[in-house]
Amino acid sequence: MQDVAGKVAFITGAASGMGLGMARAFAEAGMKVMLSDIEDEPLQAQVDDLKSKGFDVAGVQVDVTSEEALHAAADKTLQTFGKVHVLCNNAGIGVGGKSESCDLRNWRWCMDVNLWGVVYGLQAFVHHIKAHGEGGHVVSTASMAGMYGVRNLGPYNAAKFAVVGVMETMMAENRDTGVGVSVLCPGAVATNIANSTRNRQEEYGGSATPSNLDISAAALAQGLHPDVVGKLVLEAILKNQPYIFTDPSMRRMIESRMRKILGGYDFADTCEALSGAEQSSLQLS
Ligand SMILES: NC(=O)c1ccc[n+]([C@@H]2O[C@H](COP(=O)([O-])OP(=O)(O)OC[C@H]3O[C@@H](n4cnc5c(N)ncnc54)[C@H](O)[C@@H]3O)[C@@H](O)[C@H]2O)c1
Question: Does 156 participate in catalysis according to the annotation?
Fold first, then answer.
């Protein structure tokens, strides 16, 4: 998208942190914004605050683990603003634990919010973005934990790697559709994610069950301001940038992972088992 003024954005997890940062940046750029969140009171407070500054925004309560709620939110966005151009699948929770031993309710909560929430968002909104032919953009918030396996983050890593995979597929499928696709992979950002259990639904153990996240609120408070991330996402949409990173010092994590992966090809080139074996010419694109 080369011009966003007057265009419509829908954002999940917009009552706090990076989602709120995106809402502010988009509104300041002249967009109409539908903010959504599971937390109704903070959502209404942020919508009221933006409205009091003269921005054209509205709010809808959405739990992203509900497919129906996301379809209802798409309907409300169209009823309120007529169209939708930008989708930000941003809502997420932080949960820790080793893959082999972590409480399965943590696994399910993490996958339901952090992965299924993204899938439901894509299914509810992308066809509406394509329908008007004016172009648009889809951004999903993954994490650097979607790029690199981090200790004690088994479920979170799995969900965020999956989000990166889904969005890379969306990039391949939307090359000529006029809809840009990006995946946001933040490093540390000063948000409320360390306090994610506030939103843990009863079916996943309720708010009293510990999230086992090693990252403390105090450590996260040293992170980037979420409003900076909001501006970064807007700039990435305008420049059609597929991968959005927030912390350049984490580049070495990607380089280290790529070196380890390429080491697998060095092994394949020299191993006995593959020596002289017939290979298919299949290439994936
Ligand atoms: N803060 C970081 O350092 C960091 C780093 C990498 C990735 N992320 C990702 O950034 C995204 C935004 O998180 P944040 O850091 O701004 O945290 P945050 O807690 O400040 O904001 C997340 C928002 O999502 C909402 N939410 C939680 N569960 C929901 C649900 N089921 N349905 C709808 N909304 C729900 C929360 O109410 C909250 O408003 C998440 O996807 C998170 O995984 C955060």
Answer: yes
Ligand 1 pocket by Cβ (under 6 Å): 12-13, 15-19, 37-39, 62-65, 90-93, 113, 141, 143, 186, 188-189, 191-193, 196, 199, 220, 223, 226
User: Of 181, 186, 211, nearest to 196 (Cα)?
Assistant: 211
The range of the structural domain enclosing residue 224 comes to 8-250
Tell me how far apart the alpha carbons of residues 71 and 134 are, in angstroms, rounded to a whole number: 21
**Separation of 149 CA from ligand 1 center, angstroms?**
19
Residue 283 lies in a domain: no
Q: Is residue 269 part of a domain?
A: no
Per the structure, how many domains does the chain have?
1
Q: Which of 190, 170, 148 is nearest to 16 (CA)?
A: 190
Strands (E), 73-214: 86-89, 136-141, 179-185
pLDDT digits (tens, 9 = 90+) for 114-149: 999 999 999 999 999 999 999 999 999 999 999 999
Is residue 261 domain-resident? no
Q: What is the CATH number of the domain that holds 170?
A: 3.40.50.720
Residue 236 lies in a domain: yes
User: Has this prediction a pTM greater than 0.90?
Assistant: yes
